[in-house]
């Protein structure tokens, strides 16, 4: 597998990413171009804007990934690209690019599921990680607990009934007036370090539901109400110009939010571990991945759940937790080796065909 070379392309949300990975898991290059200023100006990902930003960035990002890896398209074994889930306008930019390369250089294409890639990149990080394993995937749009029996064989144990945890981090950060250019999650995590996690009594979601599903919409609302009731007008006063007392109040809200948001994860994961071990007693690993898994508080607390249950936590390094091309290339490799890929597009296929 070492001589396999996979290009991975990811454009499902707001990052344009590409990477070249070798069959043995060696990362030869990794390029990410993010849309920070768009996020700030539009208050979230506006699909049409995001599509334009992807279109502008994609050629350069892919070229840089090839250059950094010191390879040309001719050296590649195949091209892997995210086909979903995500914003369809954005996904199309990546798919179009992948098909163009595949057509010109006669390369097979591997269509990759974004969430599967978040889960499987853990196998690149830890070569001992065999199926079956339990995975918690936490990002801006998804909150999933899955039992991975094998490649392409996943049983969903839980999902969110409304928002994902990343969405709650992002909105809370915005309402708290944080500088979200590097993402709402990291900004809130930072501020929470200054706060008292027990200062605000937020209630833990879904305790009466004895299952593995999640809910973050209610907690989001609790944060908004906490801000409103304390009369800190965060829309027009950014944290950088807040008074000392005001900053402390915001930090307390941030820390209290984070404590309860993660406690909710812990409670659902504890139950999922119990369910999973009943179904697959041989499980040894607990994988935690997706953008929110780059949070240190999250990592520490989920490691405690793993240890308490005799499992080993596998949490990829932060740059492989947030959206990236490496996870797409690696998942492409896993499927390619298993014989799951599409032939190159026909030479007479028009370039604009998806
Ligand atoms: O996986 P990802 O990069 O993109 C999606 O597939 O959604 O996840 C992005 C999410 C965002 O909501 C972002 O705020 C959150 O991950 N995130 C964090 C941290 N870093 C990224 N949330 C909390 N703490 C962090 N350090
Ligand atoms: Zn993601």
From TrEMBL:
- Cellular component aspect of the GO annotation: mitochondrion
Q: Name one GO molecular function term.
A: tRNA N(6)-L-threonylcarbamoyladenine synthase activity
Where in the cell does this protein reside? Mitochondrion
- Catalytic reaction(s) noted: L-threonylcarbamoyladenylate + adenosine(37) in tRNA = N(6)-L-threonylcarbamoyladenosine(37) in tRNA + AMP + H(+)
Provide the cofactor list for this protein. a divalent metal cation
Domain (Gcp-like): give its ranges.
26-330
The note on cofactor binding and number reads: Binds 1 divalent metal cation per subunit.
Keywords, A to Z, come to:
Acyltransferase, Metal-binding, Mitochondrion, Transferase, tRNA processing
What GO biological process, any one, is recorded here? tRNA threonylcarbamoyladenosine modification
Family label: Belongs to the KAE1 / TsaD family.
Assembly and partners are described as:
Homodimer.
What task does this protein carry out?
Required for the formation of a threonylcarbamoyl group on adenosine at position 37 (t(6)A37) in mitochondrial tRNAs that read codons beginning with adenine. Probably involved in the transfer of the threonylcarbamoyl moiety of threonylcarbamoyl-AMP (TC-AMP) to the N6 group of A37. Involved in mitochondrial genome maintenance.
Please report the name of this protein according to its UniProt entry.
Glycoprotease 1
Q: Which organism is it from?
A: Oryza glumipatula
The gene for this chain is GCP1
């Amino acid at each position: 597998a070492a001589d396999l070379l996979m290009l991975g392309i990811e454009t499902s949300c707001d990052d344009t990413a590409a990477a070249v990975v070798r069959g043995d898991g060696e990362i030869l290059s990794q390029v990410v171009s993010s849309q920070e200023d768009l996020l700030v100006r539009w208050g979230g990902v506006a699909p049409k804007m995001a599509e334009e930003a992807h279109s502008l960035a994609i050629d350069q990002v892919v070229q840089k990934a090839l250059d950094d890896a010191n390879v040309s398209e001719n050296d590649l074994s195949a091209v892997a690209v995210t086909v979903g889930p995500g914003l369809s306008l954005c996904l199309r930019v990546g798919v179009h690019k992948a098909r163009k390369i595949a057509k010109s250089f006669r390369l097979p294409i591997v269509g990759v599921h974004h969430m599967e890639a978040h889960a499987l990149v853990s196998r690149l990080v830890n070569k001992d990680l065999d199926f079956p394993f339990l995975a918690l995937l936490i990002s801006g749009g998804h909150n999933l607990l899955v039992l991975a029996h094998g490649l392409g064989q996943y049983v969903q144990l839980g999902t969110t009934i409304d928002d994902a945890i990343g969405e709650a981090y992002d909105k809370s950060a915005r309402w708290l007036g944080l500088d979200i250019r590097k993402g709402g999650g990291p900004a809130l995590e930072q501020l929470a370090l200054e706060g008292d996690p027990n200062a605000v009594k937020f209630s833990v979601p879904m305790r009466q539901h004895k299952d593995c599903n999640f809910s973050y919409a209610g907690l989001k609302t609790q944060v908004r109400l906490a801000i409103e009731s304390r009369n800190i007008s965060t829309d027009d006063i950014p944290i950088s110009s807040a008074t000392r007392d005001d900053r402390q109040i915001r930090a307390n809200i941030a820390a209290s939010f984070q404590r309860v948001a993660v406690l909710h994860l812990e409670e659902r994961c504890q139950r999922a571990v119990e369910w999973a071990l009943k179904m697959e007693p041989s499980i040894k690993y607990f994988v935690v991945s997706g953008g929110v898994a780059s949070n240190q508080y999250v990592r520490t607390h989920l490691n405690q759940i793993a240890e308490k249950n005799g499992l080993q936590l596998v949490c990829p390094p932060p740059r492989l937790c947030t959206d990236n091309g490496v996870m797409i290339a690696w998942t492409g490799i896993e499927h390619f080796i298993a014989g799951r890929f599409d032939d190159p597009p026909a030479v007479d296929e028009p370039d604009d065909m998806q």
